[in-house]
Design a protein that fits this description.
single chain; five-stranded mixed sheet; Peroxisomal Thiolase, Chain A, domain 1; alpha/beta; four-stranded mixed sheet; 13 strands; about 375 residues
């Protein structure tokens, strides 16, 4: 007869991964949408009048009241080269990444040298070495820190980064990790592109950064990650992404994205919850990436009748716009800054190029 060694409660606790805290960092420039509209009108000069009215309506109905940017409108609408815009991206996003991570460390009462695993997330510019290398230097982090830059997963990557950190920490009890997402969609605006993809992108996107701290140390508190999963749509690589052109990163955004998400939603959410001994009725908090107004309407239609709401997701879109990978972390911060009852469950969800959905189930 085999004799097994019992796993103590302390050991079980040490193997769980918890989200300690989240901190956001906004760029220096900001404008209400109403103040951006005159710049849009100037940009559209010479276009068909009906087209201009349609574009102005898209901006007015985007559900974004204000957005932040690493550059002022004059720079955004300037006919600058890809190199010039990308240099601004490198300079400003490096600052935002450092500021957000330091803010999160201060919030948690941790030192930079407490971090064992560093994931950085960005898709709106190009830099080698990646931003995590700069963080190691500027914050004097461990010289043997494990780094992972996530560069091409778009809006889904804020959740992806947490999934990667979670798997590292599950395999390494007693360690700590940071996920830093920093994005500047305004650096990808194409001055000579009057396509709907470029216009809708300009109407809903904004810039921002956020840092998440996670831990597999038993003494650290926070909601526990009890499950995570990635769901990949077949034959949907055309739906979202960037095309690298001489003038920069040109947005690819298919008009069928909201309908495709709506069609797949039941196949993403319900089986994921069932595989983890849960169901939608047991989920108390929706921590969804605000992809845009149409996607919010889709979620409302699917879950509103169940008494679920995405008020925090809608509010983040309204206050900041869609900041690609960082946006869902702004939603997460709103929940972590509240007193959530013990035992409550939260579902994190984001979508991105591929096409894919990333899910995390949390328990407070």
């Amino acid at each position: 007869m085999e004799v097994g060694f019992p796993v103590s409660v302390d050991n079980q606790k040490s193997m769980s991964v918890k989200i300690k805290t989240v901190a956001k960092q906004l760029p220096a420039h900001s404008r209400p949408t109403i103040e951006i509209l005159p710049f849009i009108e100037i940009w559209l000069q010479g276009q068909d009048e009906r087209f201009i009215r349609k574009v102005m309506k898209i901006f007015g109905n985007a559900g974004v009241d204000k957005r932040f940017s690493i550059m002022g409108p004059e720079e955004v609408f300037n006919n600058s080269s890809f190199e010039e815009k990308n240099n601004i991206y490198i300079r400003e996003c490096t600052k935002l990444a450092e500021q957000s991570l330091q803010k999160a460390l201060d919030k948690a009462g941790w030192k930079a040298t407490d971090i064992d695993y560093l994931v950085t997330v960005s898709c709106t510019g190009i830099m080698i070495p990646s931003v995590d290398a700069y963080l190691v230097n500027s914050l004097k982090m461990k010289q043997n820190i494990v780094r992972l830059p996530v560069t091409e997963m778009g809006c889904a990557a804020g959740v992806s980064g947490i999934i990667y950190a979670n798997n590292f920490l599950k395999a390494n009890p007693g360690k700590r990790a940071a996920v830093v997402a920093v994005e500047s969609p305004t650096a990808t605006f194409q001055l000579n592109d009057y396509s709907m993809a470029n216009i809708v992108s300009a109407a809903i996107f904004g810039d921002g950064a956020a840092a998440v701290l996670l831990s597999s140390c038993p003494q650290d508190e926070g909601p526990e990650i009890i499950a995570e999963e990635m769901y990949h749509f077949f034959d949907a690589t055309y739906m979202m992404g960037f095309k690298l052109t001489n003038s920069g990163l040109q947005m690819i955004l298919d008009e069928t994205v909201p309908e495709t998400i709506a069609a797949h939603f039941p196949k993403i959410v319900h089986p994921f919850l069932e595989r983890n001994n849960s169901n939608i009725n047991e989920v108390d908090h929706f921590i969804f990436h605000p992809g845009g107004r149409k996607i919010l309407q889709t979620v409302d239609e699917l879950f509103g009748s169940l008494g679920k709401n995405i008020d925090d997701t809608r509010e983040v879109l309204k206050q900041y716009g869609n900041m690609s990978s960082a946006t869902v972390l702004y939603v997460l911060e709103r929940f972590l800054d509240r007193k959530i009852p013990a035992g409550d469950k939260g579902l994190m969800l984001s979508f991105g190029p591929g096409f894919s959905a990333q899910c995390i189930l949390l328990k407070w």
